[in-house]
Design a protein that fits this description.
The protein is 58% helix and 2% strand. The chain is mostly helical and 192 residues long. It has two domains: 86 residues, no CATH class; 89 residues, no CATH class. It has a two-stranded antiparallel sheet. Strand 1 and strand 2 form a beta hairpin. Helix 6 packs across helix 9. The longest helix is centred in the N-terminal third of the chain and has 15 residues. The protein is globular and about 45 Å long.
């Protein structure tokens, strides 16, 4: 089953690669991940931490045109699958959040805030994020804010509201950076 599962995850990555870029929430990724989660067991999800780095190359997955970003696309597919798996995906997302290496924190933070926005273990998730964001190495904290703001700009304003509740949290960076100042900088960088 392991090889088959890896190949099915690779198919999610391939379908996600068909999205139209950065203009909307990645609907192809969401749809492909949701379809796969119906076939997964908690045991399957427990394998995801060891697959943070793709066990299949872009070439072997038939995705040569995405070779440059394959690792990032793979990880985003993993965390979206975990999100689509509901609460059974939370333990692995928490594990990815707690890691200092071998993770793209920004992608994990977005999925956790999406859970919280839906009312799933909201207090626990927000408490974990409030503890973890200030501890993330630079630039992971500001990248996480940027990713949340990007998703919010795609139409999920609930994420901005949750992030704003943490605006006074300090982030590691050059100078004095808070969640709030990173949010403001993100907005200003997109103003004409």
């Amino acid at each position: 089953m392991s090889a088959t599962l890896k190949e099915r995850i690779a198919q999610v990555v391939l379908q996600a690669g068909d999205d139209d870029g950065c203009s909307t929430i990645p609907s192809e990724l969401i749809a492909a991940a949701a379809k796969l989660t119906m076939q997964l067991t908690p045991e399957d999800l427990s394998r995801f931490p060891e697959w943070w780095y793709p066990p299949l190359s872009a070439k072997s997955a038939g995705a040569l045109k995405w070779k440059e970003g394959w690792e990032r696309l793979w990880f985003e597919a993993l965390v979206e699958i975990l999100y689509q798996s509901g609460e059974s995906g939370l333990p692995v997302l928490f594990e990815f959040l707690d890691r200092d290496l071998k993770t793209y924190h920004a992608m994990v933070v977005v999925r956790l805030l999406r859970f919280a926005a839906n009312g799933t273990r909201k207090k626990e998730i927000l408490d974990r994020l409030k503890a973890r964001l200030p501890a993330l190495n630079h630039p992971a904290g500001t990248e996480s804010v940027d990713e949340v703001m990007l998703w919010a700009s795609y139409g999920d304003s609930r994420l901005t509201k949750l992030l704003r509740s943490m605006s006074k949290l300090s982030l590691k960076g050059i100078g004095q950076v808070t969640v709030g100042s990173a949010m403001k900088e993100w907005v200003e960088s997109r103003s004409p």
